[in-house]
Every structure is written in C-alpha cells, then in structure tokens.
Amino acid sequence: MDTDVITQFINKPEHRDILAIIKGFRNGAVYGAKVRLPHALVMTFLFRPGSLKDKLTFIFDATKQHSKNLAFFVTIYKTLMYLQKKINGGKEQNGHSFIAGLIGGYIIFGENNNINQQIVLYVFARIMIGLAKLPVKRNTISEPKHTFSIFAAVVWGVVMWLFRHDREVLQPSLQASMQYLYLDSDHWSTLRNFLWHNK
Question: Residues 101, 152: one domain?
C-alpha cells in the first residue's frame, strides 16, 4: 500500500478517535519500557540477590509487565472516553475521565503485585500534591506559607516511624532502600566494609 494513501487515511478527522486509541496503546508500551528498564536495572543490581541470569530475567519481566500494563490501561481509558462521548452525543462530560480511569485502574492495576504497587503509589503521591494545590489554583484559599515543607515533614515522619516499627507494611523496594541507608550503616568490622563495601 502506498504511504501517501496511508498518510491520508490516518489524517482523516473521522478516523482520529479510533487511531488515537491505537497510538495510545503504542505510547503506553514505549513509555512503560522507558520508565521501568532503567529503574529495574539499578534496583536489581543494587539490591537483588541471585545470578546474572536471574537478575536479567527479573529486569525483563518487570519491564514487560510495566510496559504491558500502561499500554492496556491507556487503551481501556481512551476506549471508554470515546464510548462515553459517543453515547453522550459527541460531548465529553466532566466525570467521563474519572469513570474511564476508575474502570481501567481496577482492571489493569487492581492486582496487588510489586509493579502495580509502585505505579499506584507513584500516582497516589502525585495526586495528593495535586489535590493540595487545587484550592490554591481555583482561588478558593490563599497558599499557606510553608505548605510543601509541612507536607514533606509529615511524609518523612510517617515513613520513618513505619520503617522503625512495622516495616513489613512498606513496599519491598522501599524497605530495601531504607535497610541500606538506616540499618546497614550501623554495622562494620573493618575499614574496608566501613568505607568501601557495605558488608
């Protein structure tokens, strides 16, 4: 098929909504891989025990899952947005994005595993900051002084308390990071494992 014909087809306004779903799947897959691969590489080689083969398998599986989850979430979200708009006579309503996100989130991110926990917690942290900023943006309140400083202080106070007393409720990668920073730094026996090696 001629590339000019394909270009004309994909640029027709009547095809845009459906093609946006396909492009959304593509972008979700690519973005998921771009985000997860470097994170998995670093965290695996810093903290995960096992052979090189085990580590590479874990990195591949984590990257694949993150990529797949984002691709399918974007697809479900954009499909539901399209369907709701069609049902509503071609007009998007305020609540459509919430409904599409709610359904997509349940289907794709509802399984409790490490990858989904990390993604959901990442998004949760961002929406909490966003919700704190929303009244200021909408001019319903003036921005209190030191808002972010107080927010940061509470977050760090709570996480340190949880790690100290109930660490198993924290995400494994966070536990590993905090173990390295706060507990492993309490132990050494030689100059070598004081300065160069952790243990």
Answer: no
